[in-house]
Design a protein that fits this description.
mainly alpha; Growth Hormone, Chain: A
């Protein structure tokens, strides 16, 4: 057998175009979700509510994704993917337009809920389209390209949206998202029209629900929720950590958050490449790196150069986990139920965000210093690692090569 390493073949033009479209779509949806963070003070002042009340817009979005995503996935069983994508994109546009026009805080909240409902259903479909655009051995890289759009939203979408809001008013930022959504809608629908629909109209609700009882699906959901909780235990309080514990000024923190986002971009691409080679190994390595980065960040928080280094590694490790767990879900969920499985995984991600914010708050409320917040996140990541390692052992004990083996065979052909 010829063991000579073959050069990596360039992506066919059609695949590159499809992944570029999906990256842009993820960027638009990601920006639409997180841009609110830079607009809260202006929204609170304009709506005549407190900052904490305005912050409920963030909670409402996340809760809608957690609960509304799976409900919407089940209720749209049998709807063709192209038609469903069109309806959801329209809903996302209408939600953001309603927020931009909102005469009151309640109407603004309703617009955010509508946009969140569309977001919850669209992101799993983007991952599914990416998986369909490439051979199985390249799924990791394809999924990472979609995740790249989310990390770019943090690096570019959030600061640009905040700047537009400060320059033209917070409503202008929502109008910007509307225009971007309309711009990507046409190429997205063209892609959906030409791509195969493996789920098709023949999906049954009972077949979709059965996937949630599968042990491997439950393991991926658990790792996703625990990893998100670990990351956001620390990230929710990263600004006061960097200012109060590490000693950086507010202007420097802005640059450091950009560095975190750059680390996320690097991690997303690396995680996708690792998942192409072995999905379970990519999950395990990513979660182990997340645990190590968080635990070390807490230990070295008073040493500025080391704190900067491990903040970067924290971002890289967490964003390396995302394409790995999404690729694993695509591998273990049946074709006829993968949209529901990915939607539940998205819900787990948002639930982890909420739990992480709560846990970090409890650590601080208990009297611990801020440097213990990433340590607490690291301990949660160790729980995620235990689940990932147990899953790896279970697959080995089954004595099957599974999807990873199929990847190696196809890669060698």
């Amino acid at each position: 057998m010829d063991t000579t390493e073959k050069p990596r073949q360039p992506e066919p033009t059609g695949r590159s175009w499809a992944l570029a479209v999906l990256t842009m779509c993820a960027f638009v949806l990601g920006t639409g979700e997180i841009m609110i963070a830079g607009l809260l003070p202006d929204i609170a002042a304009d709506a005549g509510v407190s900052l904490s009340t305005a912050g409920l817009l963030v909670s409402a979005f996340a809760l809608t994704v957690v609960v509304g995503g799976p409900v919407l996935a089940l209720s749209t069983t049998g709807v063709r993917r192209e038609r469903l994508l069109a309806v959801l994109m329209v809903l996302f546009v209408l939600g953001n337009a309603l927020a931009a026009l909102a005469p009151s805080f309640g109407v603004l909240a309703a617009g955010r809920v509508a946009a969140a409902l569309a977001h919850a259903a669209l992101m799993p479909m983007f991952f599914g389209l990416a998986a369909d655009a490439v051979p199985p051995a390249r799924r990791g890289t394809a999924v990472a390209r979609v995740s790249l759009g989310l990390s770019l939203a943090m690096i570019a979408g959030l600061p640009i949206g905040t700047a537009i809001g400060q320059w033209l008013g917070w409503r202008a930022t929502f109008w910007g998202v509307v225009l971007l959504t309309l711009a990507v809608a046409a190429p997205l629908l063209t892609l959906a029209r030409t791509a195969p629909d493996p789920a098709g109209a023949g999906r049954g609700r009972s077949a979709e629900l059965r996937v949630l009882g599968e042990r491997r699906v439950q393991a991926v959901v658990a790792v996703t929720a625990l990893s998100a909780a670990a990351a956001f235990t620390a990230y929710t309080y990263v600004t006061p950590l960097l200012t109060d514990s590490v000693g950086f000024g507010a202007s420097t923190v802005t640059v450091l958050l950009l560095l975190f986002g750059i680390g996320g971009t690097v991690g997303s691409l690396v995680g996708g490449r690792l998942a192409d080679r072995s999905v379970l190994r990519a999950v395990t390595v990513g979660v182990a790196a997340l645990a190590g980065a968080l635990l070390t960040l807490g230990v070295v928080a008073t040493v500025k150069p080391l704190a900067v280094l491990f903040l970067f590694l924290f971002g890289a490790a967490y964003y390396a986990v995302i394409p790995a767990v999404n690729t694993r879900m695509l591998d273990v969920a049946s074709e006829r139920a993968r949209i529901l499985a990915l939607t539940v995984q998205s819900s787990a991600f948002n639930l982890g965000i909420a739990l992480g914010g709560w846990l970090g708050g409890r650590v601080i409320a208990g009297g611990a210093t801020l440097r213990w917040v990433p340590v607490a996140g690291g301990l949660v990541a160790l729980l995620a690692l235990a689940v990932a390692l147990a899953e790896s052992r279970h697959d080995r004990h089954r004595g099957t090569a599974g999807t990873d083996g199929a990847r190696h065979v196809e890669a060698a052909v």
